[in-house]
Amino acid sequence: MGQGQRKHIPQRTCVACRQVKPKRELIRLVHTFDGKVEVDLTGKQAGRGAYLCPLWDCWQKGLHKGGLERALRAKLSPENRTVLLQVGKGLLLDEEDGSQKSGEDATEE
Ligand SMILES: [Zn+2]
């Protein structure tokens, strides 16, 4: 294995915030053949795919503002959207969760 060979990292764009990130830092959603949109944790499910950051902000934006539907050429039914939001909630980085509100580094001017 040559050291100079840099491994190619696949990059994808979040359909909500439009940031380009390494594929494995994003969550894939797939428009399946039966017309539903599902979260694809394997990244290999057949169908048209789109990516979102694992952030609640992006998740909501993508689902509510149509970015995801546009990217997937899908029409989300209300219940499909609800399911995705629920699945998303379990997956996303919850920034409120690790509340470390110590004032230790607060004295810097
Ligand atoms: Zn994003």
Characterise the protein shown here.
It is built from 3 helices and 5 strands. The model is unreliable at 98-103 (pLDDT under 50). Strands 4-3-5 form a 3-stranded antiparallel sheet. Helix 1 runs antiparallel to helix 3 (78-91). The chain has 109 residues and is α+β, with helices and mostly antiparallel strands. Strand 3 and strand 4 (37-40) form a beta hairpin. It has one domain: 2-Layer Sandwich (Hypothetical Cytosolic Protein, Chain: A).
Key traits:
109 residues, alpha+beta, Hypothetical Cytosolic Protein, Chain: A, 3-stranded antiparallel sheet, two-stranded antiparallel ribbon, 3 helices, binds zinc ion
Shape: globular
Structural class computed from helices and strand pairing:
alpha+beta
SSE order, one letter for each helix or strand:
EEEEEHHH
Determine the CATH topology. Hypothetical Cytosolic Protein, Chain: A
Helix content, binned percent: 25-40%
Tell me about the biggest sheet? 3 strands, antiparallel
Q: Got a strand count? A: 5
**CATH 4th-level superfamily:** YlxR-like
Distance between the termini: 49 Å
**Overall domain count:** 1
Are any ligands bound, and if so which?
zinc ion
Architecture (CATH level 2) name: 2-Layer Sandwich
Strand order of the largest sheet: 4-3-5
- H/I helix tally: 3
